[in-house]
TrEMBL record:
Coiled coil: none annotated. This is ATP-dependent 6-phosphofructokinase. GO terms for cellular component: 6-phosphofructokinase complex. Homodimer or homotetramer. Keywords: ATP-binding, Cytoplasm, Glycolysis, Kinase, Magnesium, Metal-binding, Nucleotide-binding, Transferase. Residues 2-299 form the Phosphofructokinase domain. GO terms for biological process: canonical glycolysis; fructose 1,6-bisphosphate metabolic process; fructose 6-phosphate metabolic process. ATP binds at G10, R72, V73, G105, N106, G107, T108. Mg(2+) binds at N106.
Length: 344
């Protein structure tokens, strides 16, 4: 059995641990041959790959990033055609591959589903710091991003308190507010502004003023995709991302002067950005990623293709792609309602 491993989309802490888990189980236990494509689909197209074995993955678990690289190069030019799928299958035959392990988020697992429907053997490993992929309770990378954001909250709170300032921290997440919600709860933020739940500027300023009136300095966590009530579009930067979507970012820079103008409270913004993706993964993400890689290798041995290694409770379960793609896992109303009562 010869298996190709490929990472796609943005990097996420734990990807190295996932590859290590898959290789140690697949090569050492099951006797597979495994190769890793350099920089995702670019390496697949260009014939650039490395052999994966125990020495290759030695010591990878604590390392951030992804040692074989990742990219947003697509597997084909949209829209997908029968000819494009035929070309991909022919390329796999050239590599002598019996199947693929695809490590990625929503876009990657959507590709996995398309390939499986087209008869290509594929198993998915779900990663994304955004935690917005259905079919799994948590994706690896999310816990690390939350931990980094929580530390940033702790640091911003001390400087904010020293100057009696309101601090506004912007975190990633695109259209899902999971990072903002969890980091805000962990750091004791006075409000968390999520893409799923628009709030008015008047309401945000009322929360900030209430914190001041209690003798405290407010700290607001805002997800990059948050929209003020009445606004149709999120705040974006120039250009498009690798998937052709508007580049989100800058909502904290937009909110801070508005809060200061309305409340008279000196307000500063911080955009955490790609710091959330970098550095060593947390222990939780290392374990989750390793277990996902092991489950993927076991699925290949059993011929249990067309599924993704998702976390359900404390178990890794193989989830059909149909349950994971085509829908965004957003913060439920009840989760937001339970914390909103404590804002301000």
């Amino acid at each position: 059995m010869r298996i190709g491993v490929l990472c796609s989309g943005g990097d996420s802490p734990g990807m190295n641990a996932a590859i290590r888990g898959a290789v140690l189980r697949g090569v050492d236990v099951h006797g597979f041959e495994m190769i890793g494509f350099i920089d995702g689909w670019r390496g697949f197209h260009d014939g650039e790959f490395i052999e994966l074995d125990r020495p290759t993955v030695r010591g990878l678990s604590p390392l951030g990033g992804v040692f074989i690289g990742t990219s947003r190069v697509p597997p084909w030019q949209a829209p997908v055609t029968p000819e494009a799928l035929d070309a991909l299958r022919a390329k796999m035959a050239d590599y002598g591959l019996d199947g693929l392990m695809l490590i990625g988020g929503n876009g990657t697992q959507t590709v996995s589903s398309i390939l499986w429907d087209a008869g290509v053997n594929v198993v998915g490993l779900p990663k994304t710091i955004d935690n917005d992929l259905a079919g799994t309770d948590y994706t690896f990378g999310f816990d690390t991003a939350v931990s980094i954001a929580s530390e940033a909250i702790d640091r911003l709170r001390t400087t904010g308190d020293s100057h009696r300032r309101c601090m506004v921290l912007e975190v990633m997440g695109r259209d899902a507010g999971w990072i903002a919600l969890h980091a805000g709860m962990a750091g004791g933020a006075q409000a968390m502004l999520l893409p799923e739940f628009p709030e008015s500027l008047d309401q945000v300023c009322a929360w900030v003023a209430n914190v001041r009136d209690r003798g405290r300095s407010a700290l607001i966590v805002v997800a990059e995709g948050f929209k003020l009530e009445g606004s149709e579009d999120a705040v974006t930067r120039e250009g498009l991302d690798g998937f052709g979507r508007p580049r989100l970012g800058g909502v904290a820079d937009m909110l801070a002067p508005l809060i200061e103008e309305r409340t008279g409270i000196e307000t500063r913004s911080t955009v955490l950005g790609h710091v959330q993706r970098g550095g060593s993964p947390t222990a939780f993400d290392r374990v989750l990623a390793t277990r996902s890689g092991i489950a993927a290798a076991d699925a290949v041995l059993a011929g249990d293709w067309g599924k993704m290694a998702g976390l359900r409770g404390d178990r890794i379960e193989l989830v059909p792609f149909s349950e994971a793609v085509g829908k965004l896992k957003t913060v439920p109303d009840a989760r937001y309602a339970e914390v909103r009562l404590n804002f301000g």
